[in-house]
Amino acid sequence: MTNPVIGVLALQGGVAEHLAALERCGADARPVRRAEELAAVHGIVLPGGESTTMTRLLDTFELYEPLRERLAAGLPAYGSCAGMIMLSREVVDQDPELPAVRPLGALDVVVRRNAFGRQVDSFETDLDFAGIPDGPVHAVFIRAPWVEKVGAEVEVLAAVPEAPDGTEGSADVGRIVAVQQGPVLATAFHPELVGGDVRVHRYFVQIVRARQD
Length: 213
Hints:
Layout: E1 5-9, H1 15-24, E2 28-32, H2 35-38, E3 43-46, H3 51-60, H4 64-72, E4 77-80, H5 82-87, E5 90-92, E6 109-112, E7 123-127, E8 137-141, E9 146-150, E10 155-159, E11 176-181, E12 184-187, H6 199-212
Parallel strand pairs: 1-2, 1-3, 3-4, 4-12, 5-6
Antiparallel strand pairs: 6-9, 7-8, 10-11, 11-12
């Protein structure tokens, strides 16, 4: 079996970290900045960053419509943090002073931007992640979203088990932070920042391989 070609949208965010993690999982990982590069991949990763900026850059590089069309046709995709926002069907808590985020509609979810707070509210925790063996996944949240609503075909893979500061009764407890719908995966956190653990990326590579078969 040939290695799947998986692109990382290389407009902003942790591109190099995602490329390295995918390579460790046996993928042929490539940066994607042009429509012809997108056309050559079996799967695509949308990294973290800033979702309004990502929307603008997708338009600037003439990638928004080609990406939306490939996703609608079944291209496997994985989005982390801002990537989750971009893959959603609806975004709430948009900043009225900034250009609107135009999500790509690949996941039947409603996502809240900056749901856990600003940069100073970043935190780390361990999550039970459905489908990933060998113990909890360590998750890094930076200005992270969460999923407020899921459609009938969306599987919830992980939720916040307890408040980041250990406080009982926090509104963060139980918030959905990882979902999958068919070949589309999204996390509110950044697994690419946990260099020793590539299990989330391996999970996505398996999704892409299954699509190839």
